[in-house]
Design brief:
With 187 residues, this protein is mainly α. Helix content is 69%, strand content 0%. The protein folds into 2 domains: 2-68, no CATH class; 78-175, no CATH class.
Length: 187
């Protein structure tokens, strides 16, 4: 809960990947309140005893959302998929507007890799931004499993990470009013 709030405020990409990881963790714990408490809450020394029930309720809310959306076994919460659509909308704007000049140059290095990535992940119907998130998440899982040295993983990180990092940073700046996408450079 506290980690998610901080990530949401600081970096939307890390927030999405963190929630995806939590989804899988909650599934692995079979949505059991006891298992969630003993695994995710009890070991934490930074949470006051009286706050631990609040954390459990938050995790259980996520578990209930997964159930309500029929994603007990696989899939991602609509909340995160909506955020990815927002990021993709920003991506599309950056591909056209003057403020996206640097982003376009970063994205140009990734673009030739997208067909290969799409073939590996086998999701022809998703947009490029979601494809990148799915690839980053797969790379993260490979690293957790100790298979992070594979060339597919390092390629993914080399090409995708800079694009998603820049997109997330621009998203934060737009959201905080630090950047106006439609302001002309000459004004």
């Amino acid at each position: 809960m506290d980690i998610a709030k901080a990530k949401r405020k600081e970096n939307i990409a890390e927030y999405i990947l963190y929630l995806w990881q939590l989804e899988d963790l909650l599934r692995a714990l079979q949505f059991s309140p006891e298992a969630i408490y003993s695994t995710l809450i009890a070991p934490r020394k930074d949470i006051a005893e009286e706050q631990k029930s609040v954390f459990l309720l938050w995790y259980m809310d996520l578990a209930n959302l997964l159930r309500q959306e029929g994603k007990e076994e696989k899939g991602h919460l609509e909340h995160t998929l909506h955020l990815i659509r927002d990021l993709h909308d920003l991506h599309l704007q950056l591909m056209k507007l003057p403020v996206g000049e640097h982003y376009r140059a970063t994205y140009a290095r990734l673009e030739p890799e997208l067909p290969r990535l799409r073939a590996v992940l086998g999701n022809p119907g998703i947009n490029d931004t979601e494809l990148c998130f799915r690839a980053l998440y797969a790379a993260m899982l490979y690293r957790i499993k100790g298979e992070g040295g594979k060339s597919a993983v390092s390629d993914t990180l080399e090409f995708i990470s800079p694009v998603i990092a820049e997109l997330a940073d621009l998203y934060r700046k737009v959201e905080n009013g630090e950047i106006d996408l439609f302001r002309h450079e000459t004004e």
